[in-house]
Write a structure and sequence with these properties.
Catalyzes the conversion of GTP to 2,5-diamino-6-ribosylamino-4(3H)-pyrimidinone 5'-phosphate (DARP), formate and pyrophosphate. The chain has eight helices and seven strands. It is globular, with a radius of gyration of 17 Å. By secondary structure, the chain is of the alpha/beta class. It has one domain: Rossmann fold, CATH 3.40.50.10990.
Amino acid sequence: MNAQQVEANVTQPDSPVRVDYVATCQLPTQWGVFDMHGFEEVGGREHVVLTLGEVTDGAPLTRIHSECLTGDALFSLRCDCGFQLAAALEAIAAEGRGVLVYLRQEGRGIGLINKIRAYKLQDGGADTVEANERLGFPADMRDFRIAREMLAHLGVTAVRIMTNNPRKIDTLEQAGIEVAERVALQVGRNAYNDHYLDTKKAKLGHLFGL
């Protein structure tokens, strides 16, 4: 899949977003038993939201997490994604309620195979933004409006958002979802992802205090 094909599958900023609710089940985890809500986007991509406890009252602790197979499932040290996912679920469980939105937007929207290609360029010295650009992609192709639609379906109108990315805050606020608080999620820095995290701060505006 090339850059043009990927871009064709990404919702454009001025186009309507539609995500249909499908079903809910229980999901037991090491942190507790969550409810898992399944959604399907027009175009076929599937997304899920995990909720714990009552989330329609006040501003629940919330994480919007984009899929990262290498970090979330394969324990890669090249990024902080898997560490953030675990820390977010642990924090929600400790609070007794909260929301985790899991978006299927692998590789900041470029897909798994192109992410592997980008990693190859990073092996040769490119940073995470340069690698995307050399492959013909923007630095970040994700659309966080999808999360807005799923939160609205679940009756969540205000959140305390766990993120280092101000774009997520902007998207939710522009959609009418109140961001009552930003909760920093700074975990997993190591020798393999040091440069990656520095690049996210310098070029993507992430709010690290590391």
